[in-house]
């Protein structure tokens, strides 16, 4: 009898240990978050209508206090389903979604997803773009203002996305899209867009990403296929020094049915140094070459060929608040800027922002 009792105790202990080691199913989680960023920019070209150059969609109002983005978001995550709804306002929504129907201009994202296998999700709706390392949420970026490559590639997309994460190092995704940063497909356009993304994280301090887009963003009668590649890497070199390096390369047909292509490209390098958890600085060099005016049309002989230099200071007195100050210079091949009525090759601005999040 004693032997049977000891055996039962041992089995009970083993079962208890196995139960403790067995992974528990994650409980459904509902999260509400918010973000608001006020800003002021002084553009030394002093545009009379207060609107800065047309290739900028964030922080683009001169000499006025304004809101770049005010966002309220609800996120739900369970074992098999997930969803996001974000409602926004601000000059980012006003300018970046100007081509969309009025009803959806204030939707930051609205999507639902279901897990169909281990690490395999299908999501559909209005989604954050799979292209680039910058978003409209300023506090998540190294710099106060967005880069030329971010401003002139998609911030959002509408369609369906399948994502597979086999482990902590790899992510693979493919998308069926309404177009190049489109919720409403262009009139007389029945051509879908497609995207892919591969992300590799060999270590906790390194992320490598390759994203692509392919599709036609014009009416089918003048179809011009566009193929775009976005490559970047983020590197935490030390506990204080971080680096982002990337390049965008795109091509688009010159004419329907012909093989000739127009090309544009944009390299970038950003370095950030954190003196402490409250103070940091970042410097950026970027270049954007779009001679044919595929993305940024200027009507000048050399098209849009501009370098950008910026330096910013970040101060976070508490974790929920960030104050930023940035100086930025654009230097162009042609006279694409104006001060009063005088054409200029350069544009200089000073920007400040105050962001709050919860």
Physical arrangement of strands within the biggest beta sheet: 1-2-3-4-5-6-7-8-9-10-11-12-13-14-15-18
Number of helical stretches of at least 4 residues? 3
Q: Tell me about the largest β-sheet.
A: 16 strands, antiparallel, barrel
State Rg.
24 Å
- As a percent range, the share of strand residues is over 45%
Order of helices and strands: HEEEHEEHEEEEEEEEEEEEE
Task: Output mean pLDDT.
Answer: 93
Instruction: Look at the helices and sheets and give the structural class.
Output: mainly beta
For the secondary structure, the number of strands is: 18
**Helix percent band:** under 10%
How many angstroms separate the termini? 62 Å
Low-pLDDT windows of residues: 1-23
Overall form: globular
Oligomeric state of this protein:
single chain
What does this structure look like?
The chain has helices at residues 2-21, 91-96, 148-151, and strands at residues 29-43, 66-77, 81-89, 107-117, 120-128, 156-164, 170-177, 193-203, 206-216, 225-236, 241-253, 261-274, 279-290, 304-315, 321-332, 337-339, 342-344, 346-357. It is globular. It has a domain at 26-273. The termini are far apart. Mean pLDDT is 93; it is low at 1-23. It contains three helices and 18 strands. It has 358 residues and is mainly beta. Strands 1-2-3-4-5-6-7-8-9-10-11-12-13-14-15-18 form a 16-stranded antiparallel barrel. Strands 16-17 form a two-stranded antiparallel sheet.
């Amino acid at each position: 009898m004693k032997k049977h009792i000891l055996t039962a105790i041992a089995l009970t202990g083993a079962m208890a240990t196995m139960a403790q080691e067995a992974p528990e199913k994650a409980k459904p989680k509902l999260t509400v978050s918010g973000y608001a960023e006020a800003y002021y920019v002084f553009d030394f070209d002093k545009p009379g209508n207060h609107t800065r150059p047309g290739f900028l969609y964030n922080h683009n109002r001169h000499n006025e206090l304004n809101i770049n983005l005010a966002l309220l978001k609800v996120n739900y995550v369970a074992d098999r389903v997930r969803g996001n709804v974000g409602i926004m306002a601000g000059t980012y929504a006003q300018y970046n979604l100007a081509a969309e129907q009025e009803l959806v201009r204030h939707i930051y994202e609205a999507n639902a997803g279901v897990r169909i296998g281990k690490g395999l999700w299908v999501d559909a709706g209005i989604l954050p773009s799979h292209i680039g390392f910058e978003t409209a949420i300023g506090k998540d970026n190294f710099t106060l203002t967005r880069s030329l490559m971010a401003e002139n590639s998609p911030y959002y997309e509408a369609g369906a996305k399948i994502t597979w994460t086999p482990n902590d190092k790899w992510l693979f995704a493919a998308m069926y899209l309404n177009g190049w940063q489109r919720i409403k497909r262009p009139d007389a356009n029945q051509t879908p867009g497609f995207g892919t993304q591969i992300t590799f994280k060999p270590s906790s301090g390194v992320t490598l990403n390759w994203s692509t887009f392919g599709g036609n963003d014009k009416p089918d009668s003048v179809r011009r296929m566009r193929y775009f590649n976005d490559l970047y890497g983020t590197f935490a070199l030390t506990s204080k020094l971080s680096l982002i390096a990337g390049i965008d390369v795109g091509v688009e047909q010159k004419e329907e049915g012909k093989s000739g292509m127009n090309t544009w490209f944009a390299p970038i390098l950003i370095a950030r140094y954190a003196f402490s958890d409250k103070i940091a600085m970042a410097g950026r060099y970027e270049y954007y070459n779009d001679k044919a005016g595929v993305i940024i049309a200027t009507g000048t002989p050399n098209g849009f060929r501009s370098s950008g230099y910026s330096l910013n200071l970040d101060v976070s007195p508490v974790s929920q608040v960030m104050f930023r100050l940035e100086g930025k210079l654009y230097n162009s091949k042609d006279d694409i800027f104006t001060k009063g009525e005088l054409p200029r090759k350069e544009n200089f601005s000073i920007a400040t922002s105050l962001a709050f999040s919860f």
